[in-house]
Structure formats: C-alpha cells, structure tokens
Amino acid sequence: MLTLFTRTCSLVPIKAYMRKLSLSKFKASYLYLKRAVIVFGIMLPFQNCGEFNALDSSQNSSVVAPSFFQCESNDSRTPEASALKRLNKFELKNTIEDILSTYLDESNTSAFMNQLSSYFDDIPNDHADEEMSHFDQSITSQHIDKQILLAERIAELIMGNTSYRDSIIGSCAQNTGDETCRDNFLSDFGKLVYRRPLSSDDLTWFRDVFTGRVESYENLIAALFSSPYFIYHYEVGESDISEDGKEIVSLGPYERASRISYLYLQSMPDAELFEAAANGSIMNNIGLRDQVNRLLSDEKVQSRLTHYLSEQLFKLEETPNYQTNIEAVNTMISSLSTTESLSNRREHMINEVYDFMNYIIWKKRGGFSDLMVSNAVFPRTPDLAEIYGTAVWSGSFNEQDIVRAPASERSGILTRAQLLFTGMRSTQPIIRGARIYNEYLCGELPVPADTGTPSGVVLEDDFSERETITAITQHPGSACIGCHEGVINPLGFPFEMFDSFGRYRSVEDVFHPESSVDKGKVLVTKQVNTNTSINLGDTISSSFNDAISVTEELASNERAVACFSLKLWDFAAKQPYKIGQNDCATTSLYQRLVETESIYEALASIPFQPEFFKRTIQ
Amino acid sequence: MKYDKLSRRFFLQGLGGSILTLPILPSIMPRAHAAVLPNDKFLVMIGSPHGGTGRIGDWAPMPALDVNSQLLNRHTLLPVGGVDNIDHIIRHARLSGLLTANPGHAGGNVDSSQDRISFILGSFFNPYIEKMNLYNGIDIGTFYSGHHRGVYSGNIAHAVNNPDARDAMEHWPSLDQFLANHPGFYSDPASTSVKSITNVSTMGHAGDGTFIPATASRGDRLYTAIFDKFDKTLTPQEVAEREKKDFLIDRVYEDYRRFLRGAHGPARTISSVDKLRVEQHIDNLVDIQNKYKQIINSCGDVTGPNDRVSVSTYSTTTQSWDVLTDLIVAAFNCGATRLAGFMLPENVIGFSGNYHQEVAHGASTDPGRQLLHNQNFRWQAQNAVLKMVQKLDSVSVNGQTGSILDNGLVTWTHECGTKTHSNQSVGLATFGSLGGHFKTGNYVDYRNQKNMGLLNRDLNESRPGIPIQRFWANVVQGFGVTRAQFERNGKPGYGDSSRNDYTLRFSQTTVNNGHHAYPPRIMNSLSDLLPVVT
Fold first, then answer.
1. Touching check for B252 and chain A: CB below 8 Å?
2. Number of domains chain B is built from
3. Is A165 found in the same domain as A219?
4. Which of A121, A557, B300, B457 has the most CB atoms around its CB within 10 Å?
5. What is the ipTM of this complex?
C-alpha cells in the first residue's frame, strides 16, 4: 500500500502502519500517538501536506473492512441503475453563473445573477424528506415552467443590455445575417450550455431557430437554456458493457469531465476540464489525477464543495427559526447580552458550520475523528461567540488563530450551535438522539406508531426536559419504549449539556408551562443529567458521562466511520444507498478514510472508484 | 437533418369540456414585475344541502369507522381535564393509507374495483388525495339546527328554521365577506370587479343579519357582472409577446422530441429508462402549454359563455357547473376576485317525488333512499367539486408559484352530519393548502375517542368533536388574519360561540337525555391552530 502514495508528511506512513494493527487497537494507538505528537511539538498533517496520488485507490488496502459491508469482489463494480438525472437547483444556478462569467467580469456576472434571483427562487426547492436534497429527481411541470421562464429571462437580459450582448454574442447580435459569426457564437456558447461540442446535427437544429425571426438570438438563448442537453446530465456513454444482465455504459470524455465537475464544483466543466476531455487525457488515471489535484486545490472548488457537502450532510437549510411565540424563548433571548437580529443569529450559526468544515477538510486536512471531536469553533460575530463562551474568531485559519472552546464543552460537529439549536424551549433530545442513530450510525428507526401521550403518564410542571421525555416515551408497556429507551433517548440525553440555543450548561432552567399566567418565568433550576448507557449491540455498548464522551466514541466507531463513508458515496453518486448495497465503493472510501485520516483524501479518491464513470441504465 | 415540425394542433387544441372560449394566452406579464409579487390566496366555499350521508362508510373511509383501527394514529388534542376529566384523543392517518375498494359501500362497485376513499369520494378523487383533507368530528355544536345554511360559509347564526336559536345568536360575516372587507385583502380594490362570486344569496352574510345578494344565477349574467368592466382589446405588444412565447414552447417541445429520437452522435441512443423520463418531461411540457392557454393576463381576455345556462342552486346539468367553474377560475386567474361560494342542488338524480322529505329525510331509515341520497352526493363530487379542484390545480396566476389550488382552499361542507339535521360531524372535505397553511393528504377525526360513555346510544356519532368555529378560525388565519382581527368580542373562534354556555349538545336526538356542554378547554381553544392539518 505504501507504494501507492507519494506523501511529504512523515506521519502518514506511520498512520498507515498503524492501520495494519487490528482496527480495535487503532483508536487507542492513534490517540496515544496524537498525544505524543502534540507533546513533542510535531504538527499533524496540515496544509500543503502533499497531493493525492492514488492511481487506483480501490485496490490493495490493508484496512480490514467492517464485516457488515458486503464487497466480495472488485471485479464487477457497477452503480445502481438510474434514469437520466437533472441538474439540481444548486447546480443549475452555479452552471448559469459560470457560463456568464466566461464572458462577463465579476461585477457584471454578479449583477446579472442578482436579476435572476427571484427566478431561481420560483423553481421548486430540491427536497427528499430525510435524505440528501440532491437525491430529489422529481421533474414537475412547475420545474419546467419556471426553468423556461428563467431561460427567457436570461435571454432578455442578454439582449436588453448592450454590454452583456456585445460581450456574449459579439458583433453578430446586430447582424443576424452574418452566418459565420452566428455559427461561431453557437459553437462557443452552445458548448458551454451543452457541456460538450455541438454536433452538426445540433447546429442545423439551432440554425432553424433563426428562420424568419427578428428576435432570433433571444429565441436561441432561451431555447438553449431550456434544452434537455442543458437541463439533464446527458450521459449516453461511449461504450456498452453488459454484466449479469445489466446494461452499463462507460462514460465518454466530456461526460467524465461533467461528472468530476459536478462532484467537486457543482457546475459545468471549466476550461481545463474541457481541454482534458478534448485531448483525451481525462480518460486515463494520470490525466484524471492531475485534474483532481488541480480542482481540489482551487479555492472556488473548495468553497462550493464545502458549502454543498455541508448542506447535504447536515441539512443546514432546515435550521429552525426562533419560536418567539413561546414566552420561555423570549426570556432566553432577553438573557443574551449581545444585540443581533434573530435572523442574523440563525445565519451566523449556519455559516459557522461552513467555516468548521472548511477548516477540517481543507485547512487541517482532518479526518472523520477531527470532524467528530475537534473543539475548534469559528464565531465570526459576538452573538455566536456568546453562545460558545469564547472570543470572536478573526477569520484566520492559521492554527494559532483558531479559537478553541474548552474541550470539556465542545467536541466536533455534533456540538455546533447550528446542530444543537432548536429555536424553542425544548432541547428536543429525541430529535438529537434519532439524528445520531439515523445519520451518524446509518440506523433505521421505524415510523412512530403512536404520536399521542400514552395513558397513565403523569407529568409535573417542574420536570426537566429529560424527566419529561423519559416519562412520556419510556412509560412501561407503551409502544414507544422499545425505540426510545433502547436507542433514541440514550443517544440524545447526553446532549442535555447544551440548552436549546446550543449553549453549554450544567443546570437547566425549567420554565412555567406556557398555559400558565407565569409563562416565561423560571419555575425551578435543576442539575442536568447527561449520564447515559448506550447498548446498540456490536456497534456501541458502553456507559458515557456526557456528549463529549459520546462524540469521542463515535469518532473511532467502526459503524460511524462506515456510515460517514456511505454518506460520502451517496453524495458523489447522488442517490441513496444503504449498507449492504453497492458496498464496494463505500468500503473503498472507508479504507481511505481510515488509512489517511483525511476527508480530503476520501473526496479525492471518489473519481477513482470503478463505479464512478459508469452508468447502469437498466 | 430534417426535423418533424411540431404539430400545432397538439398544443393548441381547446380545453376539453370547457364551455368558455378562453384564448390561447401565454405569459406576457412583465416577468421582472411578476416574479416579485407574493402569491395570492383564494377561497372557494361549496355547500351541499342536507348532509345525512349515513354511517355506512359512503362518505368516510371504511377503515376509519372502526374505532380500534390500527391504521389510524392517535393524538392527544387536550390532556386530562375538563368536566369529563379525560383526555381528548383524536385519530388521524394519511388518506392514501385508507383507500379501499370495499364493495360494502352502499353504492357498490361503481369504481371498477379501484381503491377509493368512499362511494361518494370515488376513485376520481385519487389524483388529488395528497392535496385534500377529509374531516370528521367538526360539529355545528349549537342547537337543533333546522336548516342551517350558514354552516357553508361561516355565519353560525344563520339557522333557517329555528328563529329562537337564530335570534339568540349574533350574526357574523360569512368568511368571504369578512375577508373581502379585511384591510389589505384586495390590494387594489378598484381592479376587483366583485368581492365574492356567489350563486345564491344565502352564501354571503354581511354580519348584521342581512344576506349579500347573489352575484348572478345565470352564466351570461355572471360573466357580465365579473368581466364587463375590463378592456377586451389586446395591444400589439401583447400579441407579439404571445407569439414569442408560443414559438419558444414549440421549439423546446421539438428539442425534446429531437432528444428522444437519439441525436447523440454516431450510433448512440438514449436508454429506454431515459426515454421514459424524457417522455414524462414532454408530458409536462404539454401541461405547461395547456396552462398558458388558460393564463389570462387581463380580465378582458375572457370571453363569455355561449348561452344562458343557469348556475343557480336548482340547476342539475353538468353544463351549469362547468360554466360556473370556468368563470370562477378565470376570475381568480385575472384578478377580478379571489373569493367564491356556491351551493349545489339537492336532486340531480331525477327523483320524481319530494326529494326533500322522501329521500333526504327518509334516508336514515331506508337503505334504498340512502343510496339515492348518496348518489346525489357522488354526482356533486364528480361534476362540481372535482371539476373545480381540477381546474384550479391546472392554473397558476402568472408570475406566482404553485397552482391556484395550492395557494387556495376549496371547502366542501354539508349542511348536517351523518343524519339530516344532525349537528355533529358535518361532512367536510377541503382541497388545497392555502399556500402551505394547511398540511394536506390527511384524514383526521376530531371526535374524542376516549368519551365512550358520554351517551348511552349512538356511540360512534355521539362523541364530541370540536365546534366548526375553530375550523373557520383556522381558515381566516391562513389568510394572515390575526386573532384580534377575527375574534368576536375577544372570544375564541370565528363567530358566535356563546350558546355553548348551556345548550351545546352532542346530538339533537338527546335534547332531554343528557345534555353536555363542550368542556371549557375546548371552547377556549377555538382560535388555536388545528393539530395534524396545520
């Protein structure tokens, strides 16, 4: 395995060697080494630590895959069948922006995009219930209608502004009879929209659009942006493969360029990718490696990937708002010493997740364990610094400038304010626990059979959140007790060390009921109980004192790492998988995560998975 | 390469079954302007006389009749307390999970064994179940109601045959009149031709005991009342814009056809799976073109019906309801109004005798009459309610998100509960989410499942639900009206709920046998949002 990598960091081979130890010994060994490294002043792998250099990451890993993965053979690795995928909303917006920026400077592109914003807003949001929103492949008349309106608006704006028009179309905009000029425009602009060179067939068809129309360029541009070659990820492949009765196609160079581009940039291929497709270098692993390294070192790529990956993994758009119709919430708001609008506070929490992910993936080149246990926080504003009880972060990612919360209070992504915030009085330990089980351990909870309070439950006004949830969901004989006592509550209760705004706490203010005349006033203050005993069979079976110890367990938990690997593959494949389904790609990502302790490395290895440039169509 | 020219007729064919001549009108509204407008909200109230659909599952889903059905979830509406000192437990489920092809419905197998909600709400509603809600346990809850036409539109005091009760109640504006006069509801009242479209005066109440005259009871007059004030001339720019839009849609359509034919370079074609997806896209394109045909940029674009068809509550032809529906949808679309209420006829099945006495009142004791009565409801469902829902869902106001149905609410309210003159569990179905205010696709039964021993008879019917003032309060709140703006003298609920102090009964058949007032906690929550559906 060591021969597969060229790394400048001496620690990496050591870590790789450690992986040769049994996985169960890994956690202790790694934490021991990590402490030693810190003691001796050696920095962990950091920026410019080396480039991804795997030629085929799917082979020869020494990391033993978890037994629940089923990848018996690498010989016939194919993705699940899927129909033509459409551009999701994020991709649509980015693609249009990148096409425009090919012709316009930054300020003009920005101004143009601002004029399209309400048109993007009108397109239905991607939504897929509990899954990543970009799994949503619905295409309704509402989608199509609004996309056509968007296409018309783009065309109107180009033709209605001489600066835009001349930059994009050139001199032929005013002389529709100049066929050479028109064909050059069609070839150049059409290639960006279609994400491949236009065929003679395409050119013939578009020439037809001009016939007898004075507003021909406007029609042409609107038609281009409404075309199936733009709306859909056009992937017909360049060769057919038939395996086990499946129809599989191997993607051609421009399709490959798009796949990579939409994985990392969530947009159309850039000039270099187009070039790599044109000269064929993208079809071999060396050329592919060059493109991957180039893209992942690009700040624009890093920014977009961080945003989109964070959005998909943590569902940031679902961050709740402050429930100001609850008096207790208003009391809590009034207890904050910083002045800031509630909408800004919400926005700051979301942005902090981006900064955190940016730090973990790109700046620190950290791994899953860093994601789960890092106490680095990134409060750019006083309101969020107050939540964390830290200083305001300067915006610098230099290690000495990183703000750190006390390690006993913050530990990784699960203790971000955004993930802890509920906007209401309740801390929602059920949601917190179910989230960990479903999204961090890839468990599947059944739909609750009964949403009512079981008969016989007695609730007192002075119950703490934990006492209330316990009384309702762990009532003897109720239908709820199985999932709640066994799974959800033990995972959620340790996080009672954070209030519903995400602040660390050791005591809980229990408010008078909202139906009381004293609503909004504190009835009693209680010590929070964060002790828990989690018994999930082979996955976790231990007792913990608080959320910090739970996150430490998750950081090295085989199932949790496997689940994160699965999420990364889901993200790349844009369709949901389960453990036990197409496990080879997930296994490979798991091995890469464990070997390199680097999310960056795992992301970089995705295009080298044998499935990535194949498409099963039946 | 020579491409097939698009068949213009394919796109430009007329609306099937439509009486009106709606012009082929693509979007011409200045889009920069249109895109920033908030979505308008709409209300259509439909009333059916009598009610009395029986307890045999002809109206409600069969599984919901089983009080122990495991298909329904339980939810605690109110915890222990009140005069009965018991929880108020309601039941609910996704409508999609309650469909059956049960031939036990009185009407038998009239849906070719397809799953359906019920005999009345037949399989023809299946495409809309995710956009509808079906309620049980919404009670008039005041008194022996006689005929109670106010229940359709929000004036609880309008009891036709019970002057004693009527006089004791304070009249309150019907929902359409209340909303029409609510500040800001019509942002430009000058462009609103009528506050609300009605076909009978009893749908609209001023709030002072007087009725609002019907807009018209004949199609041509209704058209005149709504559309006559608008300029009917298209400007050259409008004509040009329409042609331009038409051209683009044609080209897009042709592009997708081209894609299907496999213009993908040498020897490459798209797979059958991809073809299916593209074909679905093309189907949607056809829908879009159909929508543009119905998009009306100016009320002057609407042309009137060709004859003097009646749209009154006595008209029993399908043509009547087609015309009324088309006029309402067109008026909503062009901004002439956003409110409508109409009452349906009672005898569309051609019963030759006294329908009122022999069928409506005879239904509860005669299965044959019950079937006739429910056939009447099924006709109403299919020929009036469904058509309204379909057409509202096929049209979007230009520049706004979602169909008019998505941004609006259609309420179909029966006059009574499961028996004629019963004031409990009024037949109520709604369509549309009122811009997301209502969560749809639900069956919800607000009757208290714990109150089994409340009365000695008719246990299924006699369980108290919640007064209809709460449903109305939810409707007006969906339009952004605050409690302080709609509550009467600061009392919870929409309209007068004062009679509950001593006479609220759960069954008019038990006037002298166990009166029960609604628990105060129910009455105090009449302005609260309804669980499950909001």
1. yes
2. 1
3. yes
4. A557
5. 0.79
Judge if A227 and A260 occupy the same domain: no
Residue of A nearest to B262 (CA): A236
Residues of A with Cβ-Cβ distance to B244 under 8 angstroms: 215, 219
Residue range(s) defining the domain that contains residue A281: 239-298
Highest mean pLDDT among A118-132, A397-411, B145-159, B369-383: A397-411
Report the residue of chain A nearest B290, measured CA to CA. Answer: A141
Interval B385-428: pLDDT, tens: 999 999 999 888 877 888 999 999 999 999 988 878 777 788 99
* Residue A401 forms contact with B (CB below 8 Å): no
Closest CA to A529 of A512, A548, A508, A510: A508
Query: CB-based contact (8 Å) between B209 and chain A?
Result: no
Q: Note whether residue A385 is domain-resident.
A: no
Q: Which domain holds residue B135?
A: 41-183+346-385+405-523
Beta bridge partners of A237: none
CB contact under 8 Å between B268 and A236, yes or no, is yes
pTM score above 0.90: no
Residues B145/B421, Cβ–Cβ less than 8 Å: yes
| Measured distance CA(B423)–CA(B207) in Å, rounded | 22
Q: Once rounded to an integer, what is the mean pLDDT over residues A577-586?
A: 81
CA nearest B401 in A: which residue? A122
Q: What is the CA radius of gyration of chain A?
A: 27
Among A250, A269, A298, the domain boundary falls at A298
**Residue A243 located in a structural domain:** yes
Q: What are the angstrom distances between the C-alpha of B410 and each of B43, B46, B177, B319?
A: 6, 7, 16, 20
Claim to verify: residue A188 and residue A283 sit in the same structural domain: no
User: What are B466-520's pLDDT values in tens digits?
Assistant: 889 999 999 999 999 999 999 988 889 998 887 653 333 333 333 334 446 677 7
Say yes or no: B161 contacts chain A, CB-CB below 8 A: no
Considering the domain boundaries, does residue A270 fall inside one? yes
Is B31 an interface residue toward A (CB < 8 Å)? yes
From CA A471, how far away is CA A457, in angstroms rounded? 6
**Residue-level pLDDT at B209:** 78
Q: Which of A231, A256, A274 is the last residue of a domain?
A: A231
Q: B137-173, pLDDT tens digit by residue?
A: 898 865 555 677 788 999 887 765 555 555 567 889 9
A609 in helix, strand or coil? coil
Residues A247 and A187 in one domain: no
